[in-house]
Amino acid sequence: MICSFVTRDGSRWMPKYLTAIDGATCIGCGRCFKVCSREVMHLHGIDDAGEILGVCDGEDDNFDGDLNRMIMVVDHPGRCIGCGACARVCPKNCQTHIGADTIAA
Fold first, then answer.
1. Which residues contact 9 (CB under 8 A, 6 or more apart)?
2. Which end of the chain is more exposed for a tag (fewer CB within 10 A), N or C?
3. Coil, strand or helix at 74
4. Nearby residues of 44 by Cβ (< 8 Å), 6 or more positions away
5. What is the arithmetic mean of pLDDT over 48-59?
6. Taking 90 as the threshold, does the pLDDT of residue 1 lie above it?
7. How many domains does the chain have?
8. CA atoms within 13 A of residue 64's CA, in its CB half-sphere
């Protein structure tokens, strides 16, 4: 497939869209969330059994004492523009990105 994406100077560019974050590797640091301008992902609480408790919104981040740790979860993948900023700041390399040329339209 020929790349149909170009930068302003005409250079070829292939967006790589965030599709998943490995919850076992993610440390919930929030760096990716801070650099994402599209709100593609959010911090979610995890209990001792590894079950996702819900979005950590700052009000009841304890989840009635069930919170074990927090991880980042891709909850709006369609908002991703493929800039790769999140991948550049992730200290654990726990994200999966797929090139625009391999994603079915």
1. none
2. C
3. strand
4. 52, 53, 54, 55, 56, 70, 71, 72, 73, 75
5. 86
6. no
7. 1
8. 2
